[in-house]
Each structure stands twice: as C-alpha cells, then as structure tokens.
Amino acid sequence: MKEPPTEGRLDRQRARQRAIAADVMADGSVRIEALVEKHGISLMTAHRDLDALVARGIVRKTRGVVTALPSSLVEASDLFRRGRQQAEKAALARAACAWIEPGHAVILDDSTTTLNLVPLLTDKAPLTVITNFLPIIEDLSGEPDLTLIALGGRFHPWANSFMGHMTVAAIREVRADIVIMSTSAITDDICFHQTEETVHTKRAMFESAATRLLIVDHTKFDRRALHALAPLTDFDQVIVDWRTPAEHVERLRNKGIGVTVAPAVRGR
Amino acid sequence: MKEPPTEGRLDRQRARQRAIAADVMADGSVRIEALVEKHGISLMTAHRDLDALVARGIVRKTRGVVTALPSSLVEASDLFRRGRQQAEKAALARAACAWIEPGHAVILDDSTTTLNLVPLLTDKAPLTVITNFLPIIEDLSGEPDLTLIALGGRFHPWANSFMGHMTVAAIREVRADIVIMSTSAITDDICFHQTEETVHTKRAMFESAATRLLIVDHTKFDRRALHALAPLTDFDQVIVDWRTPAEHVERLRNKGIGVTVAPAVRGR
DNA sequence: AGTCGATCTCATTAGTAGATGAGAAGATCA
DNA sequence: TGATCTTCTCATCTACTAATGAGATCGACT
What we know:
The structure is a homodimer. Chain A is an alpha/beta fold. Chain A has helices spanning 9-27, 32-39, 43-55, 71-76, 78-81, 86-97, 112-121, 134-140, 165-172, 196-207, 246-254; strands at residues 29-31, 59-62, 65-68, 105-108, 127-131, 146-150, 153-156, 161-163, 176-182, 185-187, 190-193, 209-216, 227-231, 237-241, 259-262. In chain A, the strands form four sheets. In chain A, strands 6-5-4-9-12-14-15 form a seven-stranded parallel sheet, sandwiched between helices. A three-stranded antiparallel sheet of chain A has the order 1-3-2. In chain A, helix 7 (112-121) links the parallel strand 4 (105-108) and strand 5 (127-131). The longest helix of chain A is centred in the N-terminal third of the chain and has 19 residues, at 9-27. Chain A binds a DNA duplex through helix 1 and helix 3.
C-alpha cells in the first residue's frame, strides 16, 4: 500500500498558494491578516506566498490588502497549468522515441515533452543528442553513453534555453538524422510560437535534420500564438496524444500528413 | 565556531573517489576487492565509484582489477583540480575581478578559478558572461542581472565543458572586452595544456577578447603539459598568487610582462 | 559446467535544501 | 511621530533526494 493522502511539502505549498489566489479572486480584495488566520500560517509565510503570486502577476499587494488582477492572466499562469497533461506528455515522448535508432544524431528542442524523452534515450545508445535546452544539457552531462552537443548562444531564462543568432549559427554547423520539436499553438494547421527568436531557432533545427517530427498535445489546437513557424505538411510525422479530437486527426490525414496517435500508457 | 571537520556526504564521496584514483595510480593496477577492504565500503559502492572514474576516462575496469590510464588526462580532470589551493584560487579570483567593469562582456574559460569568480560577478552587473564551462552556465542561469552566453559544442565530461570546432566557431561570433583564462602548466614562460582541443578553444577565446588576463597559481610553474598555447608575453596581465616564488615574478617583470600578485585573503 | 565478477533491485539511512515562524529592524503612511 | 505594514535574519524542522549495502540475478571466462 502506498500513501496517496500524503501531500508533499511542495504540493502543499502550491495548493495553499492556489487557495489564497482563489480567496483573493472570490472577494476581489482580502486583508493579509485574514489570510494568516484562515490558513493558519505565519505572517511571514503569507507574505512569501503573496510575493510569489505577485511575481506571477496574479495579485497585487498594497499595504495590508491584496487585490485580484484580471482573471484571464490567472488562468494562463502556469500555477494553474503546470504539471498537467503529464500522462499525455509521457505518451508523446514514448511514441517519438520509436523513431530514434542507435547511432542517430537527434536534435531536441526546448520543451517539456522532449525533457520527458530524455530518460528513454539511454536505451538507444550510442546516440548523439543536440539541444539548446539547459535542463536536457544538465541531465545528459552525466551520461557517458551519449554524445552531447550543446547549442550555445544567449540564454533566455523564461525558456531555460539558448536562442538567437549564435544558436542558429551553431545549428547550421550540424546535420542531424532527426529533429523532435514541439509547438506552442496550431492554427489553420500551421505551427505558431510566442517569439521570433523561438521561430528562428526552431526553423534552423528544422533545416538541419533529415527527418522532422512534431510533437503536439491536444491542448495546442485550442491555443494561439503570434509567429508562424511552418505548416504541419512540412513535417514527416506529427505525433498527437490520444485525447486529440478525431476531427483534427482526420483533417490532417486528409491533407496527406503522417499522424501518429500516442496511446494512453496504462500500468506503471 | 563552525565545523570544518564535518564532511558533507557529497564531499566524502568525492574525497573517496579521489583516494581510489590515487591508489590506482600509485600501483598501476589494483584489485577491486583490495579497494573494498581499504576503504571499508561495499563491493557495490566500489563498483559505482569506479564506474564514475571510468566515465571520466581516469581508470579502466577489467574483470576484478582496475588499471590506471595515462596520468596527463587524470591531472587535467576536474576531480583533481577541484578543491585544491582553495585559498589561492579565491585570491586570484578576487584580483581578476578588479579588471571587470559593469557593462563588460567577459569570457571565462573552464577552470576552477573562474568558477570562484562567479559569485563576485553580480556586483558588477550589468555584465555579459561568455563561457564554455557547464558549472558556470548552471550557476548563472539563475542570475537575472547577467546576460549569459553559452559556448556550445561537443561536451567533454572530463573537463565538464564544451570544446572543439563548434565551440571555436561560436567564440568567433563574439567579441569580448576581456578574457580570463587559466593554464595547466608553464614552461619557459609559455602556457601549455593537456589536449589540443583545449588549446584550440582557448586560443579562439584569446583572439576574441580585447584584454587578456591569465590566472596562474604557483603550482603551475612546476608542471608540464604537451600542447603550447601562447607565451606569457602575449597576455595583458598575468595574475599569480602570493605563494609564487619571487624569482618567477621578477623574471616575468623583467620580460616586460604585467604581473599582479594576488594577496592572501584574511578574515572570512 | 563451474567459478568469479558485474550488475540489478530494493530497502534503509543519512544529509540537505527548502519551507516555516518568531522576532528585530526597516519602510511607509497619515 | 506613532502606528502599521513589510522585509530581514536566523534558527528549527521536515520532506525529499541521493548514497549505500545486502542479496539475487546475470554474464563471461576457462
């Protein structure tokens, strides 16, 4: 028997911050003292929680009271999104992994799905991994079986990755067998991203790889972003999760796009 | 009073691995069982330690016995560089820091001395830091005040850094105000390094910076290495620690080389 | 086939980073 | 200036991570 009821320290903190955010939004504004009593925490902790929320742009602190900010931002915040679709991402990673053969040179972009892919890679050794994503670099620096090629350049803290013209130049120095990338949003069957730098970097990756894999979880079909990267028809295969509406899958297939539906993983 | 005797878990592990490596090198080859007894550890732990050393290319495992590999690489390994002459390195870092001005673009090479420099950098913000050394990259990725430019390329586990032609190409893309580098050995007042890749990479750094600083602790005058980098006269300033024999300092100065002697830091 | 060594797995333990709270010191407002 | 709120500092605690060792299984050499 395991212990699902045991809330981790980290979970508890996040749950509490969520609850506080909810409190604030419910009433529009709340006294900090009230939060202290309601949640049975110290004043200091209340302040720390609130500062975290302020940093995310969810609430505002003003001398003793906390005020809510427009809810759209709140919902967009990763506080409410983080860690979701974990099962989907794992399934996508597993499906993508099937395309990798020992000896390949693989480009991985900066996305949480590719991060999920990393633990699966050791099975495919020897392998060359090329990436601009710092968490992957850190993970793989300890792996003796894999050759790691980091794509340097300017570091972007919000993405935890390296992007920009230096990164693009570095990518042009390599030729990979396969690139596995994800996207922020899909509109009219075209990939979109939040910033131009992202697009430049990913496009270079795209052009340096023989086989192009796109990884998409079903939420991406509902989202929008500013900068176009490429139409889905340019990819050799699009991998979607099992919760993707059938209409999307069918439409893409009718366009001649290779679509893999990653099935839910059971057991484990 | 603090507790310098209390070895952290991590330190203990590293110290033990160092000791094991020393054992192996002393005799050329050692039985694994002997290591188990000598260090009072389990067979499993011995294997794990050895695997770590194998991964760094320091020793070889072959059915029950461990053999040493050529010592040049071993000495270059950060396992041995790390943690020695800590006071000297701190002093050198401090002296080097005096050359850095806010707004500068600074290249740091892969050395433990430059790693010591990192905590001092936040005072100089805004600053652009360019490096191929993974520990520095990891440290600075959390610093919002500094611009971090990573020099990518193939990862070399024994040095914990990126080197090779991709790295060189990346360096050529930038122009820095100052480069702070160290060296493995000094013979005939010329810098030497263990591998050609190191030399190529450092030379590129050298050529991309307006001001060149060389950091040298006193042990480097007693050591030798294979590949020449550049004569000391090519550097704008050579920073040595206070334990460097006066003869060296004088000789360099007579050659017209700018030499700074970093004084011992007291207190702290 | 038999022996010795390597690896795997899993439970236990130790060390650590991070969260928390109490109180002091610092800001800010009226 | 007084009152109220915020930040800082430091000690304490706790939940997690990583190291470790015992035994079982796997593998390879002769």
